[in-house]
Amino acid sequence: MNIELLKKLANTFGPSGNEMSVRKIIQKEIKPYVDECRVNKLGNLIARKRGKGHKVMLAAHMDEVALMVKKIDDNGYIRISPVGGIEPVTLIGQVARILKPNGTVLCTGVISYGEVHEGSEIKELPKIDYFYVDTGLTKKELKDKGVEIGSYVVPTQQFNTLGNKDIITGKALDDRIGCYMLVEVAKLIKKTNLDIYFVFSVQEEIGLYGAKTSVYEVNPNWGIAVDVTLALDSDLKGNSNIILGTGPFLTVKDSEIIASPVLDEHIKNIAKKYKIPLNLEIADFGTTDATNMMLHGGGVPSTILGVAIRNIHTTAGIASMKDIRNCIKLLKLILENPPKI
């Protein structure tokens, strides 16, 4: 497996609605391994490996949570609005890049919050309205550089390895890991009777919009959203079995859907047969592109398969390469041994 590709994907900026830089990398990487590659009007990348059998849609989203310029104060401080689900407390002191519409960097800033001194009392978690980005530039200098209302602000951190180098950390692991896994699966599938559509979707973090439009084009017989979930192995309450390094997860239920029991049972049987560790997930909050796949037309049997990460929706996500390798292996086996749906 090419970990350099995952590193490149994670380090690239691709906030919801501005995913073109990520898409270019994926398109170049996957094109030699598929029969067709196209971008639809919303910006989704759809890569097809032709077959005469059932249509299968595998979806991973390219976008990452970020921020947007809401106002520029007279002193040059930039007020921000969230793009996707971000806990404001995780932003304090983060370095951020402000982007041009084409995704290149205009300038760098630090996400700031009123000075916190030792012994000072914090009565509640800070709200996004209290944050600002300090670029060291005046309002005029920001304007001259092209910073304006609507410019993207992306918190950043370089991809790195931890411990024995089988643990990775970085920004945008949700869902560049999923994108990476689909590219690697496309490389491994040599011949198939299935008509496979690898869909790299946009704007998942703000409303699952990319999958909603792509599923109309693909019209699949069944589908899998390849995404990440929150590892709760550091939760002192111990109310989850989703633990980093113990294998991929398969969703039974999230906050929006109950996954296809037939598809889930088939995947569980494959994992058992080939001795791939697999965790079952019951999620009380959050959902994925599988929601809009499942609700297409008269209904599409769908589920979610992926890996767990710690510190989700931060610049310091943590994931296990062992889990990623096992998930790629399982996805390949599912496509080689498809369900009868």
Write up this protein.
The chain is α+β, with helices and mostly antiparallel strands. It has 2 domains: 3-64 and 171-336, Aminopeptidase; 67-155, Elongation Factor Tu (Ef-tu), domain 3 (Beta Barrel), CATH 2.40.30. It contains 8 helices and 17 strands. It has helices at 3-11, 20-30, 139-145, 173-188, 209-218, 261-273, 290-294, 321-336, and strands at 36-39, 45-49, 55-61, 66-72, 78-83, 95-99, 105-112, 132-134, 152-155, 160-162, 167-170, 195-201, 222-230, 249-253, 279-282, 302-309, 317-320. Strand 6 (95-99) and strand 7 form a beta hairpin. Helix 1 packs antiparallel against helix 4 (173-188). The radius of gyration is 20 Å and the shape is globular.
State the gist of this model.
The chain has 341 residues and is an alpha+beta fold.
Let me know the average pLDDT: 93
Number of strands: 17
Helix content: 25-40%
Q: Number of helical segments?
A: 8
- Following the backbone from N to C, one meets helices and strands in this order, namely HHEEEEEEEEHEEEHEHEEHEHEEH
CATH superfamily of the largest domain: Zn peptidases
Which word captures the global form?
A: globular
Radius of gyration from the alpha-carbon trace, in angstroms: 20 Å
Give the percentage of residues in beta strands. Answer: 25-35%
What structural class should be given to the helix and strand makeup?
Answer: alpha+beta
CATH architecture of the largest domain: 3-Layer(aba) Sandwich
Identify the strand order in the major beta sheet.
1-2-12-3-13-16-14-15
